[in-house]
Amino acid sequence: MTLPIAWAAAREAVFEAGSAVAPGPVPVPLVESDGLTLAEPLVTLTDLPAFPTSSVDGWAARGPAPWRIVGRVLAGDTAKPLAVDGTCVEIATGGMVPDGTTAIVRVEDSVTTDGMVTGEPRRGKIPDWRRRGEEAAAGEELLPAGTPITPGVIGLAASCGYDTLSCRPAPRTALLVFGDELLTAGVPGDGRVRDALGPALPSWLRRAGTDVVRVRGPVADTLEDHVAALRSAIDAGAQVICTTGGTMHGPVDHLHPALAELGARYVVNTVAVRPGFPMLVAQLPGGQFVAGLPGNPQSTFVALVSLVLPLLAGLTGRPLPTLGTVTLGADVPGRGDFTHLALVTLADGRAHPVAHVGSSMLRGLARSAGFAVIPPGAEGHEGTVAQLVPLLDGDRP
Asked: 126 is in which domain, residue-wise?
């Protein structure tokens, strides 16, 4: 009998296994990089901003008022220096501030008469022009390697002058749903249940930053069909193959024999966590990973956050997913020698357990913010702080 590994140790083990075979960086155009991961630190290619710019429409002036108008600077122009006191140029928002400028006067704070300008520059916490390098100096690290690329990161990189980013490619994933009892359409009944995982898990895998290249289900409950389905996912180029069901050793649980036939090596085989302990990650001789998720839906998602997300983080060069903290709004029972991942919802700044949390249920999961972590041999008490495993939201991590 295989002894389950501690939950925290299982997360570390799959993360390290993924990190060991993470693919090398590739250059990706900015507009195609959303959802990928920085393979190298993002550093500024120039001072940011690269030159002083006006934050307002008005006048760039030198010396005390009044100022004689000697030119105009629009956004995109190269400004000539102001060499003489008592002179100014009209300047547009985003225009380059000329060398020699001592003040910016907003157009609404100025009066123009016969080619002369009078007015007072504003004094306050927000300057009317941005100094060169005030956001970042050339060569300064803005973001470390391993940072997920979001639209904000893309915009920052563009402002620094990048055309491409050095990225870790998105892992290619596949999903195989095992089970003769599954229906793919219609209302469940007469011994058949509706497949809830085939439609749901690909969306979760995409939100985790992967390219889903194969979805198949239900796969018949025979060893031959299991092996064939795994080989088809390999042929499709999947680097991570998620399966659902068949992780125990019952009469129709064929995942372990299929892994043996394919020459797989276990990274993790059963985890001391409830719900969902019969979960596993194995590595095939070709380097691909098989993540065996339990067939009960809530247990499946426990396995997803416990093993699949840390594995994907390692493969993409991201850090091991961090756990948040929450204050419990009610008592949460422990599960003996197992870590208990308890679904909670957030209200009034506290985490409250939800109802309908059987391992076969999805009603509680659908309205939860994540799983409160109750360590082995412990219980969660109202008012105490617990770790939180967040559920994926609508954005890629």
From this structure: 53-130
